[in-house]
Amino acid sequence: MNSSHTDADQKNTCILNGTYLSIRNLLSDSEVRDIHILFKSGAFDDGRLTAHSAAKEVKSNLQLNHQTQEHAAIQQIILAALNRNPVFRNAILPQSIHPFIISNYKPGMHYGWHVDSPVMGNMIRTDVALTIFLNDPEEYDGGELELQTANGNVLYKLNKGDVICYPCTQVHRVREVARGERNVAVSWVQSLVKETVHRKMLFEIFQITENLRNKALNEEEYLLLQQHYSNLLRMWAN
């Protein structure tokens, strides 16, 4: 299964496919341009420096030095975009976000099959992984994010400014880049709600509640739906 965005005219829409959430235009065109300028002026290190254990053996990419001003500026742009996006906030319920890794893949580079570390940084539990695409898919061949799922492998190669969110429990890889360069920002989120199925259920209830807000609905039923959402969140929150 190959999942990609082809309709650039649709703004700020999302696709929820089971436990995988993709959001179009998380970053605006101007934000992507600003990141591109910072990206080009930054200093990059061997990506294996941030890999753990067996992942070092299968990782081949470059990463923007996290101590640079360019990295700090890109991080600020991305966090602002995430904070203002209601779909991300309500679907992922972020509690902590690991500092972003800004990656560059040149021809021949890849990241082989691996699973993310369960805990990173300052003891952040990794519940949800994010990949934000910083250049268009036409600019490079290969480089797809490939996830192993119960229904077969899924490929993601989205438009610049788009993000894919997926459970950190999935085995995944980045396919080898054959032409051009692949630029992405990746991070991991500790969610307020640990279990994927619980987050999905809460988000679906939230969407129903929002859709019914301005429609003719019995007020008692509407309040009951809100009550169930609140109580489930209270029950499942860490």
From TrEMBL:
GO biological process, one term: DNA damage response
HAMAP family linked to this entry: Hydroxyl_YbiX
SMART domains, per database record: P4Hc
Keyword Oxidoreductase appears in the UniProt entry: yes
GO molecular function: 2-oxoglutarate-dependent dioxygenase activity; iron ion binding; L-ascorbic acid binding
Domain Fe2OG dioxygenase: 96-191
InterPro entries xrefs: Oxoglu/Fe-dep_dioxygenase_dom, PKHD_C, PKHD_hydroxylase, Pro_4_hyd_alph, Pro_4_hyd_alph_FE2OG_OXY
Keyword Repeat in record: no
Protein name, entry field: Fe2+-dependent dioxygenase
Annotated source species: Pedobacter sp. KACC 23697
Keywords from the UniProt entry: Dioxygenase, Iron, Metal-binding, Oxidoreductase, Vitamin C
Cofactors demanded by this protein: L-ascorbate
